[in-house]
Amino acid sequence: MALLEISRLHKKFGGLHAVNDVSFNVEHGAIKAVIGPNGAGKTTLFNLITGTLAASAGAVQFKGENIQGRKPHQIAACGIARTFQNIKLFHGMTALENIMVGRHLRSRAGFMASMLRLPWSRQEEQKIRGKAMELLELLEIAAYADVDATSLAFGQQRAVEFARALALEPALLLLDEPAAGLNMHETAEIGRLIARIRDLGITVLLVEHDMSLVMEISDEIVVLSFGQKIAEDVPAAIQDNPEVIKVYLGE
Amino acid sequence: MKKLLPLAALVLIVVTVQIITEWTDTRFYLTQLTMSAYYALLIIGLCVVMGYAGQISLGHAGFFAIGGYLSAALTTHNLVAYQNSALIRMLDGLGVLVSGQDIYGDALIAVTPWAACAVAVVSAAVIAWILGIPVLKLKGHYLAMATLGFGIITYRIVLASEYFGEADGISEVPAFQLLPGLAVSGDFGAREENYYIAWGLLIIGMILLRNLIDSRVGRALRSIHGSEEAAASSGVDTARFKLQVFVLSAVFAAVAGVFLTHYNGGIGPSESGVMKSVRYVAIVAVGGMAHLWGAMIMGVILNFLSLRGVFGSYDDAVFGLILIVVMLFAPNGILSLNWRGYAYMIFRLATARKQSGGKTDGPA
Q1: Are A12 and A135 found together in one domain?
Q2: Chain A: which residues have CB within 8 Å of chain B?
Q3: ipTM value of the model?
């Protein structure tokens, strides 16, 4: 059984089939990429998996359970974390606090325990802080722990977002264009980071435009065009696939 | 430790102010300071909803009124006519009723202030919860309008209902005996103790909310403000947290309403008016939105000035003006302005003038 099984997923916006009958699996421990020209339905696909959008038809199975129709926070609780194409950090909060939000599901203090600062909730708070610091160090941004997250440089903001997603200790990490807006050096860095995340035992599904990155790190690639899957194969085969070349370069 | 410092300073200031009024024989100020503390209690609750969770409410005077009016009505309405009914006898058995005489010397049976307070606060919480479920799905302007609607409904209900005294409101509300020897009442002899009750309550409120903001729940609330989508992706049940914080702030408002009503000995419809809600929102904005201390300080200062009659009959106009000026010149609240910079600039200007003045007066 694959970790994530997408079967005949369909999303209509009015008359537009943004995602049209798409099926594929993501195996445990794999790095899988979804590529395709602009408007191919990649981000819509992500939003369907994470519950931000409701599918018109089809199913998303995670660890054998159908998660289609659940709310985003419930899907996060299943073990799916994500980053956003246009980075979404929490303004007015430090980098550290942003990552601490990622520990939400791994802690339980409610209104009463928080307001009364009960001893167990203080201990829990220490653990949250410790784990968030660990992640800041893993991503080499520990120096910016107490800086307002939205005032950081672009690359650092992306790192904070990665750390926040990793703080969930997810089984599956969805990365929406992790290299967007990064230079070649930073893109290579992100590639190494994604490989390291996989080594931590986290399965990765990413949407990406940067072909060099995708070809280098992916185990398998799914190609979407106008909402439909036109190819699914290993990187080398995708590069030689005439259908894919046609979509990208025209005839 | 560092976080305890402002609270310790606040306690010190509260005590100092009381001692000064004693020395200078200006104890009458304590009355308005007591009332301001209760209004500030509502305002810090609203500050968490607005500033931290990012959800506007233009209906908080409604929750204040629910607290104040229910506790006033329950403790003043005479149940003598129903004294033989099973319900009244059962309530009497539970010890939530008190018998006495009204001002004309007739027999009076009413609900005890403690029981009335519990009913009032729980009612406000339940109403906030029922209102919040559909309304908190809205965002921005739409949420503002929906909560405004709630405020208007509350206002019209207390104004129209005979039970709540129509335009006259409810008076003759008895003292609220908190502990033996400690009562919320407007007696001149109890001015000091009431000042400390109000400020004690406000300080407890500040401690609770400050703890909340700096916790797992507080971060979840602030993350909702930052990006609801990213908060949900991080596992925050955004709808639930918004609802819970809305109910919490309604409880703060209702508690303030209950205490202030017992302190004033009554409540009138203006307390539930929309202008009151607007005023509370304006004060949170002046305080700096996501700034608990700013909201509290401004809540006390502005309410104190208003209650002293400094703004005269232009009271509401002044709050409107404050809102405009703050939005234009200090959208992050007036405490966030660069006061040290201004002080330095004024100092430099003053010394520069003195220097140039020295030159003209010099032996030229």
Answers
A1: no
A2: 50, 52, 71-73, 76-77, 81-82, 84, 88-93, 97-98, 100-105, 107-111, 114-117, 121, 124-125, 128, 164-165, 167-168
A3: 0.93
